[in-house]
Amino acid sequence: MTLLAARHGSTLSADEIRPWPNLGTATTADLLSSQDLIDPPIPRRRTESRPASPIGLSVGQVLAAHGALLDNWDGQGAIAPGMTAIRAAQGFIAGLPSEVPPAVSASTTGGVLLEWEGESVDLLLEIGNDGAVEALVSWSTGTEVEGPLAALKQQVLDALAVLLDDA
Amino acid sequence: MAAEPGTVYSDDRSIPDSEVLYRVISTAHVEWSDGSAVRVQTNAFQDQPESRLPELGVPATAVSVFLQSEMDTSGRTPADLCWDAGRGVATVTAGQVRAEGQGVVRWPNDSGPEHAMIFTLSGAKKSKGQSKRIAAAATVLIAPAPPTAT
After folding, report:
1. Predicted ipTM?
2. Do B90 and B44 contact (CB within 8 A), yes or no?
3. Among A59, A74, B11, B45, which one is most buried in terms of CB atoms within 10 A?
């Protein structure tokens, strides 16, 4: 973690490390800790630049600004994001270096979506209001994995490491 | 547990791949930059929650759209689909959603005779990858109102 933080010019204080749901006692720092060893030789691709999310705003503020905190926010039956999902998403973002802010949005089922798009990899996390987290990792090579975060922890770490390098 | 969409809906091949599908989107379906719509987000093409199916009057999860050809017939325009300023319209073609393992079924309802649905041919709901790729293929035709405070 220290190496990772130093490489990206930021550090995480203990206060910034939040518990991560569904992974027992694991924290965001735990999730990231093995990234120092990861530097996969992934081919680069050029993409349009992507505007950063308003990282200065909390997840709740972003969702409120989008009008997504009420049931039926889409007019088509969507469930409003719950506090469990919002707090978990906020905790995860707080534990990441600010160079990789995700796009934050509401899922239709009451959860929160965090999406990153990079030159080499895209990452999507869906945090459900029951605490379950599912991930989608899409590499520019065409390789894609999707499933529960607990089963894809290493792939998510790989993706985050590359996103940090790309930042 | 609701029925799997592919067991209750059938892909209507009378809808050509070139058919434009209008998807009503909200402010929260769009990624924004300085008040401008950048792109459609994955959540715009996530299926409805199963728990909402009874009140929506459908037997399985799907994504609501409107068929351009039927809109042309009825004389309604995409702007007519936006019932308030917080709504906009994105477009995607039937061929683009079929390329992601989806079917398109006509489903006229109270919202209009042009109403149809995009449903997954296999499994209980769209995968995240399917929703993400369909969203990536979509274009914002009418942007909804931008966020209030970002």
Report:
1. 0.91
2. yes
3. B45
